[in-house]
Amino acid sequence: MNRRSFLRGTAGAGLALSAGLPSLCARLAAEDGGPDARVEARHYVKLADREIECRLCPRLCRLGDKERGYCGVRENVGGTYYTLVYGKVCSLNVDPIEKKPFFHVLPGTTALSLATAGCNVNCKFCQNWEISQARPEQVETIDLSPEAAAARAADARCPSIAYTYTEPTVFFEYMVDTAARARQNGIRNVVVTGGHINAEPLAELLSVVDAVKVDLKGFTQDFYTRYVRGELGPVLETIRAVARSKAWLEIVYLVIPTLNDRMDLIREMARWVRSEAGADVPLHFSRFHPMYLVKNLPPTPVSTLEAARRAALEEGLRFVYVGNVPGHEAEDTNCPGCGTTVVARTAYRIDAVRIDKGKCEKCGTLIPGLWT
Ligand code: SF4
Q1: Which residue, among 266, 289, 285, 269, has the nearest Cα to 277 in the 3D structure?
Q2: How far apart are CA 262 and CA 148, in angstroms?
Q3: Strand 62-63 and strand 52-54: pairing?
Q4: Do residues 349 and 326 make contact, with C-beta atoms less than 8 angstroms apart?
Q5: SS3 helix, strand, coil % of the chain, rounded to 5?
Q6: Which atom of ligand 1 is nearest to the CA of 57?
Q7: What separation in angstroms does the CA of 240 have from each of 119, 120, 216, 236?
Q8: DSSP track, 154-218
């Protein structure tokens, strides 16, 4: 199998579907006639003396000539700011959409999932740190223009493209252009983000995407300072903004033993989600496994995830899931009206869907989400 046919295979179905992790630093040659690596960034302002200020995320990096922002993938060249990762894809797979996870979006379908290098935070428990904490020069990439990405999704029969694995905010320009192009072709766009993005670029993004999953990594600023190197406030603002928009919102909370598993805080978080985003927003409590710089802690006990789920349900959230525990009954979606299991799941497999035109087949209760 040569490089070209390998890439075609990953975009097909079987090969990538069996992959547990993104194909890090894919050893693939350019084949799509991709764009120039250096494309002018959006959402920045020019200052005196060839300085710039990036307004894409809350870090607001202020940079002199030849300097890069914290994310490492945007560079000031003579007073003009550039993204260095436009169309430079370092991970490309066909994944079940349940893997993102989205549980109320096109169940049982696949998403063409892609990433470039870079991230604007530094989570100590990152699953994909080899690419998220890398500079563009440190990963192998393929060139994939927005047009080529949309065409590849269609070829692979993926009804959606997922911007995922690293932090898509840092490849904002490529994501927005790809999403707009894909939408023209009838392909949906879903974003997996930590939520560190400013209001103006977020509004632009929300105009071209269909669903956003926000990783809410904790519910105190202390946790964000120590383990994320980020700010909680802007993430909460992002959740509010997505909830107000036409895009579908889901939230994942990775429960890490001793670091963010206090039940009183989890309950407070669930109460906040209900009041600020709504009772219909799916909330996933995911199981932590030792990773990257947090290898000294055990996997999350399943009983902790179940207790978190109970607390969130008691606080009035209607769709609360347990994640990373394949075969757990809390992977299913149950009708809040009659209790029927309307989407039965086992890990990434869909066993049954009992939803008709957005309603429970049995009792007619509305099940919110993007089902068709
Ligand atoms: S996107 Fe990157 S360069 Fe821009 S403010 Fe955020 S970390 Fe800094």
Answers
A1: 269
A2: 46
A3: antiparallel
A4: no
A5: 30, 25, 45
A6: 6
A7: 22, 20, 12, 6
A8: HHTT-SEEEE-SS-GGGGHHHHHHHHHHHHHTT-EEEEEE-----HHHHHHHHTT-SEEEEE---
Q: Can you read off the two tokens belonging to residue 170?
A: 């840092």
Which CATH architecture does the domain made up of 88-327 adopt? Alpha-Beta Barrel (3.20)
pLDDT, position 36: 54
Evaluated on CA atoms 164, 170, 173, 174, the torsion sign reads negative
Distance 100 CA to ligand 1 centre (A): 24
What is the pTM assigned to this prediction? 0.91
pLDDT tens profile 6-57: 333 333 332 232 233 334 333 333 334 344 568 999 999 999 999 999 999 9
Report the nearest atom of ligand 1 relative to the CA of 70: 7
* Domain residue spans of the chain: 88-327, 332-372
Pocket perturbation via mutation, ligand 1, pick of 60, 62, 63, 70 by most ligand atoms within 8 A of CB: 70
Number of the ligand 1 atom closest to the C-alpha atom of 41: 4
Q: Which residues of the chain have pLDDT under 50?
A: 1-35
